[in-house]
Amino acid sequence: MNQAQISSDTLDEETARAEVYGLLSALFYAAPSAELHASLKVAVTETPAPGAVLQDSWSALIAAARTYSQEDIALEYNALFGGMGKPEVYLYGSHYLSGFLNEKPLAALRTDIAELGLGRDDTTMSETEDHIAYVCEIMRYLIAGDDVAVANLSRQREFFSRHVQSWVSMMCEAVINHPKARFYRELSAFTQVFVAVEAQGFDMLV
């Protein structure tokens, strides 16, 4: 998975949305690389996607990136999401939708992914498809992809409703309330607000 890049250039709304999903995918898949962490530290504090409601949480995320070193964030990531056996916080949709891993929500997601003509590349993505990084990457593709039969607002809304809105906020709450969360608390707060903004935008299309 390629690490998302932060740009201070003025972006159109669709490009901005795609870049946010790409950033979330990268940061939830692994602790930031040195390059990504450096980019975050010098990122403008204006929100990368339209919507003043995102401003405070985005500014807090950038402040956290400037406060904590790459090593600090890597240790936090492993403490929250890694380790042997059960992690402190799960990053998988099936856990929040059914209480178990590898359950019916994952099967439903795989069916929808197949209908989009997509699939998991085992060489670049070791996690199951219901990992937050994977669903964010699919949303990024549905926004920025070249195939208009797949990359369109209708497909975005359907996938978002079923596989993002249905559980990501619960995951964010679990991170926000965890005593070991610092950088990832701010990332989760930003994610939660971003998902709410996306939901409002899709509701306006109905």
Automatic annotation (TrEMBL):
Highest taxon of the lineage: Bacteria
Chaperone in keyword set: yes
Assigned keywords, A-Z: Chaperone
Taxonomic path: Bacteria, Pseudomonadati, Pseudomonadota, Betaproteobacteria, Burkholderiales
Gene: torD
Protein's UniProt name: Chaperone protein TorD
Pfam name, any one: Nitrate_red_del
Alphabetized PANTHER family for the sequence: CHAPERONE PROTEIN YCDY (PTHR34227), DIMETHYL SULFOXIDE REDUCTASE CHAPERONE-RELATED (PTHR34227:SF1)
SUPFAM superfamilies hit by this protein: TorD-like
InterPro entries, per the entry: DMSO/NO3_reduct_chaperone, TorD-like_sf, TorD/DmsD_chaperones
